[in-house]
Each structure stands twice: as structure tokens, then as C-alpha cells.
Amino acid sequence: MSASRPSLLRRHLAFRRLWLSWCVSNVADSMLFLVLAVWVKDLTGSNGAAAMTFVCFGAPALIAPVLGDMVDRVSRRRLLVVVKLAIVPVLLGLLVVPDAVLLVAVYAVTVAYGAVGYLTAAAQGGLVRDLLDDDDLAAGNGLLSTVDQALRLVAPLLGTGLYALAGPGPVVVLTASCFGVAALILAGLRMTETPPTPADERGGYGAEIVAGAAHLRRTPLLGITLVAVTVGFAATGLLNAVSFAVLEHGLGVPAAMIGLVVSVQGIGAVLAGITVARAIGTWQESAVVRVGLLLLAAGTLPLMTPWLPVALVGLVAIGFGGTWSVVALMTMRQRLTPPTLQGRVGTATNVAITVPQTAVTLVGAALVGLVDHRLLLLVTAVGVALAAMLTWRRTSSTVTGFTAQPQQQEAVS
């Protein structure tokens, strides 16, 4: 049975340090992501130029397999420390570049920041696998997800508020400081990592790059669960595209209410992070993914009504169901993946989910002015529900997982 959250943090001093680093890093992540777009908007006055920051942030997906391979070739703890320290001077450089190249510099930093995101997500997933037993994985991932979602409720407001009051300088300094502190916390992490595969046992570089995708293909339970989440989240790309139409035309409220939408959805996500470990311990990962997707589909339907309170209930269900699905998939991936492949399988999983969702969002953006938003919401709900059905198969989610190297756990008496 999964350990309770307080028990997990008390018993695993090393995981507690990793969790603390995640908390500090997420303060920076949640502030910086939105502020960069706002900064570009102020520099150019163009909504299109501001939107390009999100394109720059997603661009490293094109080299994600290379980044995943890098994670599996080195000490993941050291990589996290180096990457978090390296991004500090990159961010601070924005304060000294000439105005003539500032826009290009912001775009370049955003690309670097996106690449750091892929590296840290893959490396941290591997460290969690090495630190925690199978029974504790769900609780650990739930804790990390709870922190992530909780900070998304407040950190963007803190970042944009600080930007409005004092400009970009203090925001850049604060986020850089957070990354530096997170690196120092990780530098003190003491654990036994799974060593990388020796050079003489690796295949050709091309085979190594695609090894994560190959593992997903030859692990049926993990592969079909990933397909289900990919299809479900691709369908939510339409939901992203119709967000403002739902507010203005469906609910009759101003577009500025998008902040309320994000916050309410975040409340559902936080509740999901708190409860997901118990759910996985009771039902297993594939069932939790299925229930999460069904909740996500059900939560989309109230957005078709003109009643704001009903829509808010739906948003809570969307945040809850989406987080349950992601955390359960992450836990399954860690459990059914060899320690030496964690980085490559992690990046392959992220790319498989985010690229189709982004593509469908672009399609939805083209359709939203031509098709009633309620029809697109219905298509979303049906698509996510059908995706949930993909997990209804006989393969048991109790397949034996891969065990990491024996660890020297740090304990607190």
C-alpha cells in the first residue's frame, strides 16, 4: 500500500530534498513562462509576437530524443545541478543585452528554457524511480504534481504582478535565484543512482536515440495506456482553442475571466494530486487513467451550458481528471521502464502527448470562427471518452516492474 504523504516525506530524506528542490524550481517555472510572453507583448505590441514565445518554448520537442539520451548517459543528479546552475547566467543575460537584440534574446532564452524543461523532467523522473520503491511511486508523483499545480494557482499572478509593478528585472532576478537555490539543494542530495549503460554495451547512436520509443512499443500495457492518454489529450486541444469562445459566447463573461478558469481548474488538479496515490493503490494505474479520462470528458460537457456555476464544476472535473491520468501514466512508465532507459522513455512520452495536442489546438484555432464552439466541445468529450475505452483491456497493470539499484536510503529517526 502506498505510504501517506507525511510518512513518505518523513521516511525519505533524499526524496524530501528532491521535493524541496522541485518546489523552489516550480516557483521560477510558473512565474517565468507567462512573464516572457507578456514581456514580448510589451516590446512589440504584437499578439502574434507574444504567441511566438510559446512556440519557442515548445521547439525543443524536436530534439527531445537527443535530450533524453543525454539524461541516460550521465548522473541525473549532477545533470540537474549543472542545468539549473547554467540557466542562471542565461536568464541574467537578458538584463544586459542591448535593446536592439532584446527580442531575439528573449526568444533564444525561451528556447533554452524549454530545453531545460525536457532535461529536468526526464532526469527527475529517473531519480524518483531510483529513490522510491514501487509502492511509494504513486505517492511521490502525487506530491510532485500537487506542488506543480498549487504553484500554478499563485506564481503566475505573483510574476505578472511583480512585472507590472517593477518591470522585468526583478522577475528575472527572482527566477534566476530560484533556479540557483534549487541547484544548491540538489547538490546536497545523497543517493545511489543507477549507473548509465557502459559505452561498450550500447548500440549505435541512432538506436540509442529511439530506444525510448522502442521500449514503449514492446511494452503493451504501457504503450496502449500512452496511446489512450495521447488521444485524450489531443482531443483537449480543441478545448484549448475554444476557451475564449466559451467565456464570451457561451457564458457571457469577459475574456479576462480566463484567470478564474485557470484557477478553478487548478483546484481540481491539486485535489487530484492529493488523492491519486490512494486511487492507484486501490485500482492500479490503468484504471486510474481510464477514470481520469472519463472525468475529463464529463467535465467538458458542462462548458456547453450558459450557466457559470455549472461550468465551474466542469472545470474542477477537467483539472482533476487530467491530473489523475497524467500521474497514473507517469507512475506506470517509471515502474515498467528499466532504470537506464528512464530519460529516453520520459522524453518520448512527453513528445507523444504534447505534439498531437499542439497540432489539434492549431486546427481548433482555425475552426473556432467557423464552427459553433459547443460542437467542438462535444467532439472533445467524445474523443476523450473513446480514448478512455482504449484502456479497457485484459492486460493486467500488475505486471512486474523494473527494480532500481539497491539504495542507501537516508532516514530521519
TrEMBL record:
Chief location: membrane
Membrane topology (UniProt): Multi-pass membrane protein
Keyword terms of this UniProt record: Cell membrane, Membrane, Transmembrane, Transmembrane helix
Keyword Membrane among UniProt keywords: yes
Entries under InterPro entries matching the protein: MFS (IPR011701), MFS_trans_sf (IPR036259)
Localization of this protein: Cell membrane
Source organism, top-level taxon: Bacteria
Transmembrane segments: 20-40, 46-67, 79-98, 172-189, 221-247, 253-275, 287-304, 310-330, 351-369, 375-392
Protein name per its UniProtKB record: MFS family permease
